[in-house]
Amino acid sequence: MNREKLIDLIKSRGSFLCVGLDPDLDKIPLHLHEYEDPIFEFNAAIIDATRDHCVAYKPNLAFYESMGLFGWQSLQKTIEYIGESHFTIADAKRGDIGNTATKYAEAFFKNMAFDSVTVAPYMGSDSVKPFLEFEDKWVVLLALTSNPGADDFQLEIMDGGVEKLYQKVIRTSCTWGSPNNMMYVIGATRPEYIKEIRAMVPEHFFLVPGVGAQGGSLADVAENGLNSDVGLLVNASRSIIYAGRDEYFAEAAGSEAKRISAEMKLILQKKGLI
Ligand SMILES: O=c1ccn([C@@H]2O[C@H](COP(=O)(O)O)[C@@H](O)[C@H]2O)c(=O)[nH]1
């Protein structure tokens, strides 16, 4: 999906919600275990219940890879089930030398029809650029993550006090691609940094995980991160997909997605963006 289509989708729906598909066999309702592929059944029900309220889906690969071949099959079926109506993010956090990175890119962009993949910047430009060679596909680069451990390296002051590591990552990497094929992961748990990052990269989209289960605030993220194209995809995984744990789990997920998306619509209306 290209940038124009993504912006149209967000503005026409009045939502910048990304639903995280992180299914865990230990958490999904018991009655689904009777199906041949309980993970796919779970995802399909969540997708049916949330598709009108969100613009993107983000399966985190760990939840599929942990189940081996069956997990990959569930992922493939899930991505086909979503189709082209929503922006899709393979949250795989890949990164390796160039020829290997190309194979990762082929896995998510050719073999599976994802629109984007999360990539770690640690190995530098040759590990990221192969992902940028695919038309209408996106790199979502880890910049300032939502977890407490982000303090260990990302907030470390570099180069004799000039800038922090996440700032160097953004300043350097923003020339590798463009706002048409690169986004940044910025955690919702760090709203105090979002305004400054928005000033550094005014046009890029941010994928913002960390609202819901991790306690980040949608209002704070929007206040600091919106741009004239909206420029945000805010992800919630557990707070939506496990909003209910019984046979009405999908309805509960749909209600939670609807609630967040209504809050987003109000924000966008107040800002004059829709
Ligand atoms: O900085 C990051 C990068 C990725 N994630 C991923 O997003 C979801 C968040 O799930 P919740 O249940 O809404 O907390 C999950 O897949 C993480 O691995 C992140 O949280 N922070």
Automatic annotation (TrEMBL):
One of its GO terms (molecular function) is orotidine-5'-phosphate decarboxylase activity. Residues 16-253 form the Orotidine 5'-phosphate decarboxylase domain. Pathway: Pyrimidine metabolism; UMP biosynthesis via de novo pathway; UMP from orotate: step 2/2. It is an enzyme of class 4 (lyase). Keywords: Decarboxylase, Lyase, Pyrimidine biosynthesis. The keyword Transcription regulation does not apply. This is Orotidine-5'-phosphate decarboxylase. It comes from Cryomorpha ignava. The gene is pyrF.
